[in-house]
From TrEMBL, chain A:
Superkingdom of source: Bacteria
Biological role stated in the UniProt entry: Does not seem to have nitrate reductase activity.
PANTHER family cross-referenced by the UniProt entry: NITRATE REDUCTASE PRIVATE CHAPERONE, REDOX ENZYME MATURATION PROTEIN REMP FAMILY, RESPIRATORY NITRATE REDUCTASE 1 GAMMA CHAIN
Cofactor(s) the protein needs: heme b; Mo-bis(molybdopterin guanine dinucleotide)
Pfam families (UniProt xref): Nitrate_red_gam
Protein name stated in the entry: Nitrate reductase-like protein NarX
MF term (GO), any: metal ion binding
Membrane topology field: Multi-pass membrane protein
Family: In the N-terminal section; belongs to the nitrate reductase alpha subunit family. In the C-terminal section; belongs to the nitrate reductase gamma subunit family.
Encoding gene per record: narI
Automatic annotation (TrEMBL), chain B:
Cofactor section: [3Fe-4S] cluster; [4Fe-4S] cluster
Cited SUPFAM superfamilies: 4Fe-4S ferredoxins
Keyword Iron-sulfur on entry: yes
Catalytic activity, EC: 1.7.99.4
Gene that specifies this protein: narH
Broad class of where this protein is predominantly found: other
Region (Disordered): 486-513
Organism: Streptacidiphilus pinicola
Top-level class of the enzyme under EC nomenclature: oxidoreductase
UniProt keyword annotation of Metal-binding present: yes
Name of this chain's protein: Nitrate reductase subunit beta
Length: 250, 544
């Protein structure tokens, strides 16, 4: 900590906290102000052949990748050691399962990105923030896949659980280990930085639909009734974003 | 008994001339926005035809509505809840926009800006989805009046089973119009399909709506509705549907499609029904029993026990009174001439139809009415241009008996009126032969043929007294001009542009000029009497 340069502190402490703050405050703001814009904005109506393969593969692959990050980054190395999983076993499990997830994610995102960029009907529904999110996601995916396959599966392996993971967990316990991440290979650094940027963009993009995965549907009654409730009209200026103006592009 | 009220509609197909006025007024009121170009909450289909979207009635393809599982339990035809959540990333049953018709507009600017010349400029079609040139291949009414029927109409799912009999040859062709809106079902499968719980049925009047703030665009409602009357707004990414014009209904006014119907064929009123019986009725084992099952769900508003239960359930007194005068109850339950559209979807739809008789009647007239043989009124009903079996596939899950009964009753009403007009003798038994009294047939004649405005629409206004009190409070607390974009919010006050800038001039009828955006002086037609000089009415173009 004492040897960290200003740039390192900015890059590995300030930026994560900044994007985390934007992530949290942004979501609160968007939830309160823009319920109407909170949607998955599906384009299946316009194009279904590519989506049929791209969307399920990408989403299920992403679930696998997220689960992998929980195991690899959130769970400390000593815990897996404590339950008796030796490092080589962990590494080969991580490389194998990680590669499977990586192939699914890269396959899915390739189909989806192709569709978004080259199918005119889909492209027309794409806002600027979508391109930003898409480029950031592509960076995250590519810099995540390259070490998984290139280093852990085919190469000598790199124990990110000794560098990247402690730094990441340290951010949440209030004592981030800057040197650990600062000396990690560049590709992990890019991966982490792009991931923080995705967090920062998240509340302002269609990615918010992830928080609305409707698990409640499994329990609720099929038919929903609502009764008229007399409520106070909105106070001026708090009505939120209603319909977009007619004629305004996406 | 749990009494609930549901507003409902009956359409008398006998009178529909297929003018699409209902579609146009509905479009102007509700779906004239970007993202809903392809959406018609109300559309008019020519039958036979594949419909809008294509072949929507074929639930083996689209899996809309409900079905019974092997144990006879009611299940969404597209599968259970878990399956819905697992297929949420790609809905296998969703129609594409090409099934509705790729929406387009025209490059009108070309017409306006074309230079003087000998060739007529033409406006080409532009996709509303991409803004690029496109080739128009299909639209919501592309088979209007059987256009292209030899090619397409055979795809009508209702023709299944009668293909050999019905030939799509010009000289033997039959057709009628089927105006469709959302059915506001008692057992709505769209509501059951919505994973977000954004769709709901209003407890007071049964109108089914989408909460735009809670819809997350999972699009399961679109495929869940067997009538395909929930649409996906491709701009907002949210589902939208027919609202039964609830702001008008709440004010006691008919829906816009009803109000503007030139044939005056729509009827609006209340049903009281027993909410406890709905699921059992929807799970009736035999699909052909669903029509009777739904009738058994409706409660007789004249029954004092029902009135007492309704009052206890919190239904206001004026609503119970309105239910007693409800024309839809009269047509569907008392006279039994209205039938539900596709009861086999098991959603218990609440927009019912009186099957069309007109082509029948022509055959009857051609055959000649024989007062000695009053049964001749019915003799030709099975030799109709519109096959009874076809109507049965639409309205009774294939059971021809109710269709015959309804058509015979309608024919009897005509025979009686005709005999009265021409002073013919009439078989006294004619009303009884269709299971009605002479008075009942007279009532039916008044309701169907005279069809007074106040008889067609019996709509009790919503009770929003409490909301009104809160609004009054609100207006005392806040300036009423403080609406978004209103003058109190620093929006346009006096001045501005467009219609708001209009101020009457001193001379009545003289109109006034204003400076247009292009810098030229234009003439404001508003308030012009058509006689006074109108400087600037025609822009002075460059002489060429």
């Amino acid at each position: 900590m004492t040897n960290a340069t200003t740039a390192q502190i900015f890059w590995w402490v300030a930026l994560p906290y900044l994007t985390l703050g934007v992530f949290v405050v942004g979501h609160v703001w968007r939830w309160r102000y823009d319920q109407f814009g909170w949607t998955s904005r599906s384009t299946q109506l316009q194009e279904r052949r590519l989506l049929k393969w791209g969307a399920p593969i990408f989403h299920y692959g992403t679930f696998a990748a997220i689960a992998g990050h929980v195991i690899g980054v959130l769970i400390p190395e000593r815990w897996t050691h404590a339950v008796g999983i030796p490092e080589p076993v962990y590494r080969w499990f991580s490389a194998g399962a990680g590669t499977l997830a990586a192939v699914l994610v890269i396959g899915g995102i390739t189909v989806l990105a192709t569709r978004r960029l080259f199918v005119p009907r889909v492209r027309a529904t794409t806002a600027g923030i979508d391109y930003v999110a898409l480029v950031l996601l592509l960076i995250v995916v590519l810099t995540g896949i390259a070490p998984t396959i290139g280093v852990n599966l085919l190469g000598h392996g790199y124990d990110y659980r000794a560098t990247v993971a402690p730094w990441f967990r340290g951010l949440f316990s209030g004592s981030p280990d800057i040197q650990a991440i600062a000396h990690a290979p560049l590709i992990y650094q890019i991966h982490a930085t792009a991931a923080w940027m995705v967090w920062g963009v998240w509340p302002f993009s269609r990615l918010v639909h992830a928080w609305s995965y409707p698990l409640w549907y499994l329990w609720r009654p099929y038919i929903v009734f609502r009764s008229r409730k007399a409520t106070h009209p909105n106070e001026p200026g708090t009505g939120g974003r209603k319909w977009r103006k007619i004629g305004v592009p996406y | 008994m749990r009494v609930m009220a549901n507003v409902a509609m009956v359409m008398n197909l006998d009178k529909c001339i297929g003018c699409h006025t209902c579609s146009v007024t509905c479009k102007q009121v509700w779906t004239n926005r970007p993202g809903t170009e392809y959406v018609y909450f109300n559309n008019v289909e020519t039958k036979p035809g594949v419909g809008y979207p294509k072949r929507y009635e074929d639930q083996e393809q689209w899996h809309g509505g409900w079905a019974l599982d092997k144990k006879g339990r009611l299940q969404l035809k597209a599968g259970g809840r878990l399956r819905k959540l697992l297929t949420i990333f790609y809905n296998p049953d969703l129609p594409t926009i090409d099934d509705y018709g790729d929406p387009w507009t025209y490059d009108y600017q070309t017409l306006i800006e074309a230079p003087l010349g000998t060739r007529n400029p033409s406006a080409h079609s532009i996709s509303a989805l991409t803004g690029k040139d496109m080739k128009v291949t299909w639209g919501s009414n592309f088979e209007d009046d059987l256009a292209g029927a030899p090619e397409h109409a055979a795809g009508d799912p209702n023709l299944a089973g009668l293909q050999e009999r019905v030939r799509m040859e010009f000289e033997q062709v039959f057709m009628f119009y089927l105006p469709r809106i959302c059915e506001h079902c008692l057992n709505p499968s769209c509501v059951a399909s919505c994973p977000s719980g954004a769709m709901y049925k209003r407890a007071e009047d049964g109108i089914v709506l989408v909460d735009q703030d809670r819809c997350r665009g999972w699009r399961m409602c679109v495929s869940g509705c067997p009538y395909k009357k929930v649409y996906f707004n491709h701009r907002t990414g949210k589902a939208e549907k027919c609202t039964f014009c609830f702001p008008r209904i709440e004010a006691g006014q008919p829906t816009v499609c009803s109000e503007t119907c030139v044939g005056r064929l729509r009827y609006l009123g209340l049903f009281l029904y027993d909410a406890d019986k709905v699921l059992d009725a929807a799970a009736t084992p035999d699909a052909q029993g669903l029509y009777e099952a739904q009738l058994s769900v409706f409660l007789d508003p004249h029954d004092p026990a029902v009135q007492a239960a309704a009052a206890q359930a919190g239904i206001p007194h004026d609503w119970i009174e309105a239910a007693k005068r409800s024309p839809v109850y009269e047509l569907a339950v008392r006279h039994k001439v209205a039938l539900p559209l596709h009861p086999e979807y098991r959603t218990l739809p609440m927009v019912w139809y009186i099957p069309p008789l007109s082509p029948v009647s022509d055959v009857v007239d051609a055959a000649g009415y024989d007062p000695d043989r009053p049964d001749a009124v019915f003799a030709t009903i099975d030799a109709l241009r519109i096959p009874v079996e076809y109507l049965a596939n639409l309205f009774t899950a294939g059971d021809p008996a109710p269709i015959r009964r309804v058509l015979r009753k309608l024919a009897a009403v005509r025979a009686i009126q005709r005999a009265g007009q021409l002073g013919l003798d009439l078989d006294e038994d004619l009303p009884a032969s269709v299971g009605a009294s002479a008075d009942e047939l007279d009532d039916l004649f008044r309701l169907l043929a005279i069809a007074k405005y106040e008889d067609r629409y019996v709509i009790p206004p919503a009770h929003a007294e409490e909301a009104g009190r809160l609004m009054g409070q609100h207006e005392q607390l806040f300036c009423s001009l403080d609406t978004e974009g209103g003058p109190g919010m620093g929006g346009e006050g006096p001045g501005g542009h467009g219609i708001r800038s209009y101020r009457p001039t001193g001379t009545p009828g003289a109109g006034q000029t204003f400076a247009a955006e292009d810098g030229r002086t234009r003439f404001n037609l508003l308030g012009w009497d058509g006689r006074s000089p109108a400087p600037g009415l025609f822009p002075e173009g460059e002489a060429s």
